[in-house]
Design goal:
By secondary structure, the chain is of the alpha/beta class. It has 6 domains: 85 residues, Winged helix-like DNA-binding domain superfamily/Winged helix DNA-binding domain (Arc Repressor Mutant, subunit A, Orthogonal Bundle); 87 residues, no CATH class; 102 residues, PTS-regulatory domain, PRD; 102 residues, PTS-regulatory domain, PRD (Orthogonal Bundle), CATH 1.10.1790; 129 residues, Rossmann fold (3-Layer(aba) Sandwich); 156 residues, Mannitol-specific EII, Chain A. The protein contains 32 helices and 17 strands. It has a 5-stranded mixed β-sheet with strand order 13-16-17-15-14, sandwiched between helices. A 4-stranded parallel β-sheet has the order 10-9-11-12. Strands 1-4 form a two-stranded parallel ribbon. β14 and β15 form a beta hairpin.
Length: 718
Amino acid sequence: MAIILTERNTALLALLQEAPDYVPVQHLMQQLHISKRTVYYDMDKINHWLRSQELEPVHYVRERGYLLPPSTKTKLPAIAGNVNRSDYYLSRKERAVWTAMYLISRTEPVFLHDLQQLLDVSRGTAHKELKQLESELAGFGLQVQYDRKQGYTVSGEESAKRHALSHYLSYVLPHLGQSASPGAIQEMFHHHLTGSRWPLQTVDQLERIYVMIDRLEERAEMELTDETVLSLASRLLLFAQRLRAGETVQLDTDEKQTLRKSSFYELAEELAAQLGELFEVEFPEDEICYLTVHLLGARVNRMEDRKPDGEAQRIRQATSDMIDAFERLGCVYFQHREAMEQQLFQHVKPAYYRIKYGLHQDNPVAASVRDKYPEVYRLTEKAAAPLQALLSQPISEGEMAYLAMHFGGGLRREDAQPQPRSQAVIVCVNGQSASRMLKLQLEQLFPAIDWLAVLSLREFERFSQPVDLIFSTVPLSGSTAPVFVVSPILTDADKSALLQQIGRVQAPQRAALLPQNTAESILQLVRKHADIRNEELLYEEISRYLLRARGPAETPRQLSLPSLLTRDRIRLLEKVADWRTAIREAAQPLLAAGIIETRYVEAMIHKVDEHGPYIVLAPGVAIAHARPEDGVLRTGFSMLKLASPVAFGQEARHQVHTVFVLASADGESHLKPLAQLSVLLREPHKLTILENTNAIEDILRLIDQAASGEGNRLKEGE
């Protein structure tokens, strides 16, 4: 009986192939979101298949995890590159992808037996896939139709068909492209299977398109992200083939006029001429404008301003307004504002065109960003209002997560540099948003490393400076320095596994990288004096404990409004002379507790002098704050409630009865309690209670209710 592998099996094999040492079970569970029992079950199937290929099976050591033997690692690539289709069972997602691509792209009739052969499934399963695909394609504005003579066809506008094909190609064509990692066994399986199901002679054409994109980057003075190069090359190949088959897009006349004014239109003309020569087809104006849209929406690592038009200027203004809104709503200040604005603009500009023209953009870490950084994500949703105002379409969760990653990466103070002990670089193929977030996490985890650069894959290929370590989101071959493959968003399990891998690098690097008390060293000490029933579990628990111990006393997620705004931090006064006095009086509890220095109070007053009454964020309520470096020692909140309001400005809405003082030690630890406070401020009846009360008990009750309301929102996923 043949052993059938699945997509998950090949993903497990890929993780083992790329790992330099044993891989803990917990790491495999976390990476693939599966249970321990599923790991054991899949490993049993993998070992059966390896034995059938006359390869040494995976080794398992209870205390350390799984290891792919060196002999198997050496032989596996060649075998994986020639695996039989009958040895592999397509997942539900893979079947949907192949069915959709086959139906949309075929120019000949497609019948059920064609889909049976394509998917290697029964007639009933092929029919079920068609039915399930109907609702999925309807989301793109396409319909699946059947005729006894013509078979199954997909009807709809050509732009909608290309939109759908681009979406599905993002799942398939990485396995055909030059960016596929030579060390990734899963990629090799899929490369072979993709070629057998999509038998187009595209490799040479793709290579020539890569050259066109290189020239385009040079002409445009920009650098596309690594994943964008592959995605764009795949789409250009697709568009040219569709055009050659007589399928053309039609754009609105006014939209074409706008696109012709873009600085990218001339580049699109040159690209269309080169593609036309390669595929022996002429690109009409609508197709050139369509190429312009895709160039405008391409994600970049670097981009020079090219004769900014009116639309680009509006996008830049929206970018600046978004940062203003995030600073105001989040009560933070970005230290290097100009650099932050330029980096965000380079992301926002293509994002604007992707959203405007409905171009699909996957963000594989969107859910992780939303789950791990909910306060930053929701602040970003609010701060994105200026960009949303320019668009007629909503901003997707994936695009919002990219924006949140930019803001989250900018929250960390940039003036504290680690002592240079070991030198490392980060290689990230996912663009600036993911790069900034990954760097922030690694800086927290390894404060003793001197981070030399964050590189794209192509930048790394040209990078010649010697380094001690490389952290990369994709496997790298041929490096003399140890390479650690990481996810853009690190979970606690990822961090534990990474610490374990770092703990095995050769001295003297290990001593410079890790604190003296590592999980491995503690485990060795325990072994000398006790019998350990489960070393793997003990190692994981020690690692988690050390991760918590190395962080601040309270993490941003542990802080809450009730824990910070306690009874002794609330003051009640009849009235004050002016708004400056109100801020000073409101700050007294934090001064007395040693949470802030006197200069922080003056910094808050100076901010209002400089920017006006921007701190009045709700009717009758102001939140005074300044930068962490202006004199914050710990994160804290205090509050002053006035019986008679004080004027912070000339308008009626600037009459303030409640002044909160916010002190953030790091620019982000206050975000959860601030989010809880916002629950109180957006409910009119609670604001009325706050305005009319002179009892601390009433205020404490409102604070507890606000914290409870925010907790409910998190549980409901709002």
